[in-house]
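Our consortium's second objective concerns turning raw sequence data into structural hypotheses that experimental partners can test. To show how far this objective has progressed, the report includes one record in full. It was chosen at random from the queue rather than selected for favorable results. The single chain below, 123 residues long, was entered without modification.
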Amino acid sequence: QVQVVESGGGLVQAGGSLRLSCTASGLTFDAYCMGWFRQAPGKEREGISSISWSGLNTHYADSVKGRFTISRDNAKKAVYLQMDSLKPEDTAMYYCAAQSQSLCSITAPVEFWGQGTQVTVSS
């Protein structure tokens, strides 16, 4: 059974940082593109970052480019999202996902979702 589990969310002041972690089990981790998505109240879920199986190719939505950094550790079956210079508009539920490697990007099809971790940025 595939499990994708996020952690690291919380409450932070604007300008602060958080690091989200995601671990996956029950799948061949390094066969997947991994991505981070978020959904704010009343808004659609959006892809914000993805990373290829090797870690060599990364993609970012314009809204987070230059502030967020995605990375992965295949030995630990983990993917991370370092979030710096956080803004109140970054407040959302953040989801980790295993995506199709052949189309690795923030719009790549998602095969497995995590349950999400809440990030709240206060002004």
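The partners drew two points from this record. The first strand starts at residue 3 and ends at 7. The CA atoms of residues 4 and 114 lie 5 Å apart. Both points have been shared with the crystallography group to help prioritize constructs.
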